Amino acid sequence: MKLTRVLLSSVVMSLTFAGASQAANTLIQNKGSDTLVNVAQAWAEEYQSVKPDVALAISGGGSGTGIAAMINGTVDIANSSRQMKKKELKRATDSGQKPVEHVVGYDALAVFLHMDNPMNALSFNQLGKIFGRGGEFTKWSDLGVSVPGCGSDKIVVVSRQNNSGTYAYFKKAVLKSAAKAGVIVKGSFRQGTLDMHGSKDVVDLVEKTPCAIGYSGLAYATDHLKLACIAKAEGESCVSPSVATASNRSYPIARPLFMYTNGEPQGEIKEYMDWIMSDAGQCILKDKGYAPMRDVSCP
Amino acid sequence: MSQAARQRSGNLPDINQRNADWYIDKLVQYLVFLSGISAIVLIVGIFVFVTIEGLGFLFEDFSFREFFLSPWWEPTDEDEPTYGILALMAGTASVTGLAMLVAIPFSLGSAIYVAEFASGKKREFLKVLIELLAAIPSVVWGFIGLSIMNPLIIDLFDVPVGLNILNAGIILGLMAAPIMTSISEDALKAVPDRYREAAEALGGTRWQVIYKTVLPAAKNGLLGGVLLGVGRGFGETMAVLMATGHAINIPGSVFDSVRALTATIAAELGETAVGSPHYQALFTIGIFLFSITFVINLSADLIVRGIRKS
Q1: Where are the extended beta strands (E) located within A115-223?
Q2: Is there a contact between A154 and B160 if contact means CB atoms under 8 Å apart?
Q3: pLDDT for residue B188
Q4: What is the CATH number assigned to the segment(s) A108-254?
Q5: What is the C-alpha end-to-end distance of chain A, expressed in Å?
Q6: Is B8 within the bounds of a domain?
Q7: Residue B213 lies in a domain
Q8: Contact A195 B248 (CB under 8 A)
Q9: CB of B252 within 8 Å of any CB in chain A?
Q10: Which pLDDT tens digit goes with each residue over B212-236?
Q11: To probe the interface with B, which of A90, A97, A191 has the most B CB atoms within 10 Å?
Q12: Cross-chain Cβ contact B248/A192 below 8 Å
């Protein structure tokens, strides 16, 4: 099976090369995270006018897909919304690749509430008790509020499927820290969460359901949602999610966005990575709703 | 006899002569044979493939207790992944169970009507419609569950989310009903007319004839139809993925969201690294599902065959 896959992909690659060689001299393969795919596409389009002789092939499929392709050596750059795991790094070195990590921006994970929900601020411990295994909050009245339109008072917990980078980061950043603080037994999700297959599905469901609470990247937020103000510890002042608060790292659930290259980038790949980190590249990232690495003034 | 005719009979082709026709004949023979056994080859091939992919898990991380008795399905946990399918099995079983409660009365009723009461054009028309109903793609059913049933259930029962067992059960019931109707109708038609005539001669009303004579005589076929419906319910993926709410949960009521075994494979397989324990665990679920549907379909087939013989 592996052999046929390698054969197939090499055929596809050579075809792509043959097609691209007339217009461009270099083809950079870029694959991975669905969180980053919109930005990656915007970068690729813009880069066409910067360097017309470099073609970029962008595809999504999720952080896991990109990392798997990096391990198999079929991409030049892998996008990921989570760090590579130790096991994955080991598998990559075993198969002769040397993944090098680059942080290209930040993504604030917003906690969404229905517009009618009177709740404004939430602490990590409260989030842990809502989302975590063995958490004691199952009704909105446990948090001291009554939500209009939510007759059953039940908290509808909306989450993501377990191989999403967003799921993994929320679990690591919020639930593990709540578990460390001792408010829940284990740093994992409770049973009965509705596991949506994409950030957009989470947004849609929370918009329509007064009882719901969910999370996903800030870039997916709409005007029909309330974004909770998040405090890392009880009693601390809370911070609302925004590009600015994610950029200066004051918002507590902002995750770095990664791009992995095979070895230190060289030649065209290095030029592309440098361009991404330049003001032009960072402005595109900001424009798509993510937080740039530093303050950039964009037109 | 003219010389020409004698010559012609002398030139009769030898059937064992290896000319082009002989080779074409052989080729067609093998092609027909291959298509004949292709179903068996495919089934064995699929089973071998699924087993090989899942085998690594069965030998390494698999623990019978955890797999079948733990409700925690957390294959991506970095510290201690757990592979428990109890909640997923409960999800599949509850949705299929409710689907059968919906589908059995529907399909039995329409089968009795089509087989015993309707006649001529009306009967043909109904049969075509039922076949048409069976041909609706499951993603369309899922979409109905998502966009029509979901708000309806929220309004009617005042529950926070309408993606739950009730929604998926009704959708799945409607999906399984046409095939169950077809098979039940065949079973009713297979009951010889002399049974009906005898019952009528004894003074039975139309209903008594059906209830006391035709249904008992066709009971194996009807049971086979129900079992095929159950098999359909276990195997259905897309519609249950969309209508159940996809929540790992041991349900306490029909308004709880659940997650099915098939939906878990569909949602997670695409993003797992090939060969990882998570990937193999999903294939192990596949082996489990395959075995269950195989047993259900086989017993349904044996039961239906049983009545044909007797």
Answers
A1: 121-123, 132-133, 156-160, 186-189, 194-196, 212-217
A2: yes
A3: 92
A4: 3.40.190.10
A5: 50
A6: no
A7: yes
A8: yes
A9: no
A10: 999 999 988 899 899 989 998 999 9
A11: A191
A12: yes
